[in-house]
Write a structure and sequence with these properties.
There is one protein chain. The protein is of the alpha/beta class and about 850 residues long. It contains 30 helices and 28 strands. An eight-stranded mixed sheet has the order 10-19-18-12-15-16-17-11. An eight-stranded parallel beta barrel has the order 21-22-23-24-25-26-27-28, surrounded by seven helices. Strands 1-4-5-3-2 form a five-stranded mixed sheet, sandwiched between helices. Strand 7 and strand 8 form a beta hairpin. Helix 27 crosses helix 28. The chain is globular and about 90 Å long. The two termini are about 45 Å apart.
């Protein structure tokens, strides 16, 4: 907490304008020896690009980050203006809290102000008190005279009570769940925490409730579908709102040899220590690279309101589609759980309260850029001031999403040396999830930020990319020049500037110890997965593009078990032509050097929508026209893709796989079309297979096996259809476990039917890349496992260690279990 004394509080003042009010605050800070007087110009510079009015008569002027060297000692000063002063159109400030912070020490002050923003009586008291101690106490959280009672909050007539169960309270993921559910109903829905009330359809409004674990909430609704909305939300609270298990804590990792605990590791270093918080474990030794972000400039006033509204709408749409592309990119790299971060960013862009606030400023003559910037920065500041660190960490997510829109509205000035070109430890004030997701782990050996916390989405992505990271190291890290030799110890949470030779030797020894097992796996990645008792399972990769085909070979994959062709169709205005597809498939076959590729025909529908394909609007798309059903009803697209695949088959071994087969008649229709196309292009026959991902296909497996060369079990979809749980459902997804005995018994039945017909069975999906799942699947008789590229070497190593006889016994115990938890306990 920043110390605040009555000497830095000016009571009962008047000001002619905003500049005069800021000048009075600067005088207080200068007289106390806290700042260079030139910092006042920096505060006015901040006002030129962002209105610092928070609301309820409170303004928080502060300087630009580039001028932090003018701050001698972090401090705040308060100028009380009972009569108020105009701070912007329609904004009148009565309490000016001037901030001069070298890093983030001021956030507790903002946290204490957050409660005042929704309490007019308290704001009035602070603006009119004649006792500086009242203001000091309010801003420091010290004991003070009792505040006026909180005004009563009206709930709707119908509602229910709930308690926040999650360890990190009502943060972004559970709040996004509420928003997603609420938006599906024609009703006004309120969520109340104490005297604060949030709009259930506004993510920011919910985050601003500051509801921690154990907080009591009242959810009420009014409107045509109020009853249904309340029932859905009550069920969601009953099931638990979290959709992602990694809520932030870094995985434990061994410290340097001979040391115990982070503090012991820190104390052993001889170089200059810059301590922070462990965010992602691991070590990095490289020069510092200071990250710079593009600057955006824009005019304060705009053209007519209609034009500015149109510009804002267009920018929001563009940013939304950018996030969709980024979601797909991260989904391929790190899976759906990590990619879900960008779904939350999309919710920020769709927030109805932000839209309304921006449009109100546009109606007052402001430009779309100015209005949007003012709206998202104000709300980000409020989030950053939250007492809960997880909720405060969401401010960087809002700034990230907001900046995407702003870049479409303003003039972007590219930062010099924006990204590194050589191995480095990247240092920044903070990084947005978008920044982190695009980092090249080959160059960025480590991350160190001045702000942030281990529960941030940036930290989660850093861990998924296996980049060691330290966060919250303070502003001192920003003073390190690019090129400074450094050592980063992610587990200990410390950056060591100018490390000694002993420091480097110690870190290298630890790095070698931690990487030993991984190195063995990498060296043996080209060896087959042959068990000690002589059983072999092929380990192949899931890919989506040519670059991943090269990466799969390098990772030791024995082929491609799933080429997701839908990624050829996304982020474009029309489907790829036949020649374009031939070129792409041929390039992939060339990259595989003779290893086989299983190409799944277009699998869209359900959670994979492609707007230009004119997919029907369905009440339940997962039970509608998806997979092979879509292809059979859009035969021109289907035939074009099949022609391309057969033409490309001249360049290497291809297998064709049809998705979402539910009944024999669908397979017969697909095979008939495929044979007609093959004859048209005069191609040689190829192996034909189907995905087993619907329970009806399992029940008909004997009949289906007579018509194909192989089965590939899609464990993700089979799980959701078997358990009647949407694998992307905000509440149920975490229960849709592919190791549930019901799913394993369906897999067992499929393998038995395939064995009887003399065809082989593969599997793709989450459990194939899970060490326990790989052992159980192989024990059930699955002969090929298709996994993500980074998992190839590890899965091979697991299968090489365990005798197949043990895997079969393990599978038998799993089949006899009562639930997924019991199966996982077998590990």
């Amino acid at each position: 907490m920043i110390p605040l004394t009555s000497e830095l509080v000016a009571i009962g003042k008047t000001a002619t304008d905003k500049a005069d009010a800021i000048a009075q605050a600067v005088d207080l800070l200068t007289a106390a020896g806290k700042i260079d007087p030139r910092y006042g110009a920096s505060m006015m510079g901040r006002e030129a690009v962002a209105n610092t009015f928070l609301g309820n008569g409170i303004a928080i002027p502060h300087g630009l980050p580039k001028d932090r060297d003018l701050i001698l000692d972090t401090a705040i000063a308060v100028v009380q203006l009972p009569g108020g002063v105009e701070w912007g159109p329609g904004d009148r400030a009565r309490l000016v809290v001037a901030i001069a912070a070298k890093s983030d020490e001021h956030l507790q002050v903002l946290s204490n102000l957050t409660d005042v923003l929704g309490d007019e009586a308290e704001a009035e008291r602070l603006a009119t008190t004649t006792d500086p101690a009242v203001i000091v106490a309010r801003l420091t959280g010290a004991e003070m005279p009792a505040a006026a009672p909180q005004p009563a909050v009206d709930d709707f007539a119908h509602g229910f009570d709930a308690v926040v169960d999650g360890a990190h309270g009502l943060h972004a993921r559970p709040a996004t769940t509420i928003v997603e559910i609420a938006k599906g109903f024609e009703a006004e829905i309120r969520v109340r925490h104490g005297a604060k009330t949030g709009n259930a359809k506004s993510l920011i409004s919910l985050l601003n409730l500051g509801a921690a674990q154990g907080a009591a909430l009242r959810i009420s609704a009014e409107g045509p579908q109020a009853e249904a909305a309340l029932a859905a939300l009550q069920a969601a609270f009953g099931e638990g709102l979290e959709k992602e298990e990694d809520t932030g804590a870094a995985a434990p990792e061994a410290t340097a040899p001979g040391l115990t605990g982070a503090m012991a590791t820190q104390s052993a270093y001889e170089g200059r220590l810059l301590p922070g918080v462990s965010s992602s474990p691991g070590f990095a030794i490289a020069p510092v690279f200071k990250f710079a972000r593009d600057e955006v400039t824009f005019a304060e006033n705009g053209a007519d309101a209609g034009t500015e509204r149109g510009a804002l709408e267009a920018a929001l749409k563009t940013a939304w589609h950018q996030l969709e592309e980024l979601h797909d990119e991260v989904w391929k790299k790190s899976g759906p759980a990590r990619a879900a971060i960008f779904r939350a960013h999309q919710e920020f862009l769709e927030d109805p309260e932000m839209h309304a606030a921006a449009e109100a400023l546009i109606d007052q003559g402001r430009s779309a850029a100015f209005a949007w910037h003012a709206v998202y920065t104000e709300r980000a500041d409020m989030l950053a001031a939250m007492k809960d660190t997880v909720l405060a960490g969401r401010a960087i997510d809002l700034r990230d999403a907001g900046l995407r829109v702003l870049q479409e509205l303003g003039e972007v000035k590219s930062a010099e040396a924006h990204l590194p070109t050589a191995p480095c430890i990247l240092v920044a004030d903070d990084l947005t999830p978008s920044d982190t997701a695009r980092l090249d782990p080959e160059l960025v050996r480590g991350l160190c930020t001045a702000a942030g916390g281990p529960t941030s989405h940036t930290s989660i992505i850093a861990r998924s990319l296996d980049i060691p990271a330290v966060v919250g190291a303070g502003a001192a890290v920003l003073d390190l020049p690019t090129g400074t030799p450094a050592l980063l110890d992610g587990a200990a949470g410390v950056l060591v500037a100018a490390p000694s030779e002993a420091d480097i030797a110690r870190a290298k020894a630890a790095m070698e110890a931690l990487a030993a097992e991984r190195d063995v796996e990498a060296r043996e990645r080209y060896k087959p997965a042959l068990s000690p008792d002589g059983a072999r399972v092929e380990v192949v990769a899931n890919i989506s593009d040519v670059a991943e085909a090269h990466a799969a070979v390098d990772a030791g994959a024995e082929g491609v078990g799933l080429l997701r062709t839908e990624f050829l169709f996304v982020n474009r205005e029309a489907p790829p032509s036949e020649d374009e597809q031939v070129e792409i498939y041929s390039a992939m076959l060339g990259a595989m050097n003779g290893l086989p590729i299983i190409i799944r025909t277009l699998d869209v529908g359900g959670d994979k929508e492609i707007p230009y394909l004119r997919m029907p609007v369905e009440e339940n798309p997962f039970l509608g026209e998806r997979g092979i059903r879509f292809c059979l009803s859009h035969e021109d697209i289907f035939r074009t893709q099949l022609r391309a695949i057969f033409r490309a088959s001249a360049h290497g071994p291809v297998r064709i796989m049809f998705p979402m087969i539910a009944m024999v008649s669908e397979l017969e229709a697909a095979l008939r079309i495929a044979e007609e196309v093959r004859a048209e292009v005069s191609a040689a026959p190829v192996e034909m297979g189907i995905m087993i991902e619907i329970p009806s296909a399992v029940m008909m497996a004997r009949e289906l096996a007579e018509k194909v060369d192989f089965f590939s079990i899609g464990t993700n979809d089979l799980t959701q259809y078997a358990l009647a749980m949407d694998r992307m459902h905000p509440v149920l997804a975490k229960q849709a476990d592919g190791l549930h005995p019901a799913v394993l018994r369906l897999i067992d039945q499929t393998v038995r039917a395939a064995d009887a017909a003399g065809i082989w069975v593969g599997a793709c999906g989450g459990i194939a890349g899970d060490p326990l799942g790989a052992r159980i699947l192989s024990g059930l008789g699955v002969q090929e496992l298709s996994v993500s590229i980074p998992s190839v070497a590890g899965v091979k190593a697991v299968l090489r260690r365990a005798p197949m006889a043990e895997n079969r016994a393990l599978a038998e115990r799993a089949l006899a279990a009562a639930d997924a938890a019991t199966v996982r306990a077998l590990a």
